[in-house]
Amino acid sequence: MLDDFEIGPHAISLLIAYLLAFPIGWNREKEERSAGLRTFPLVAVASCGFIQGAEHLMQDEPEALARLFEGIITGVGFIGGGAILQQKNAVRGTATAASLWVTGAIGVSVGVGSYDVAVMLSLFAFLTLQILSPFSRKLSPDTQKQEVED
């Protein structure tokens, strides 16, 4: 058992998952959202860790890998659901929930060695949050209502 103890490759993958999720968490923290700098890297690391921790058990069983993916998707979706709040006539937290879901996908992608997919997911999520947030604020009925009241 100890002959198979190879911490290096796993540490590198976990670090990559952490680093790819960090900008997304930084954005959510900067925007003062319910989940932020600590949550997003942990979701990515956990998703990656579930894949890598079980990879030796699933080498010849693609169905087992599919079930693991399903479990991670469901679990991360549950966490994201906790970020969604209904306030008066508005729903808040959907971008944070979707960001958590993407972060889980980043971790899974790194866990299976699809680093290119993980990088693209991280890039698209971060750019979407950075670039589209100002437009979203301008289009939000709450923002328009506040501007009229101010």
UniProtKB/TrEMBL annotation:
The chain crosses the membrane at residues 7-27, 39-58, 64-85, 92-111. The keyword Membrane applies. Residues 14-137 form the MgtC/SapB/SrpB/YhiD N-terminal domain. Its main location: membrane. The keyword Amino-acid biosynthesis does not apply. One of its GO terms (cellular component) is plasma membrane. It is found in: Cell inner membrane; Cell membrane. PANTHER family: MAGNESIUM TRANSPORTER YHID-RELATED (PTHR33778:SF1), PROTEIN MGTC (PTHR33778). This is Protein MgtC. It comes from Sphingorhabdus contaminans.
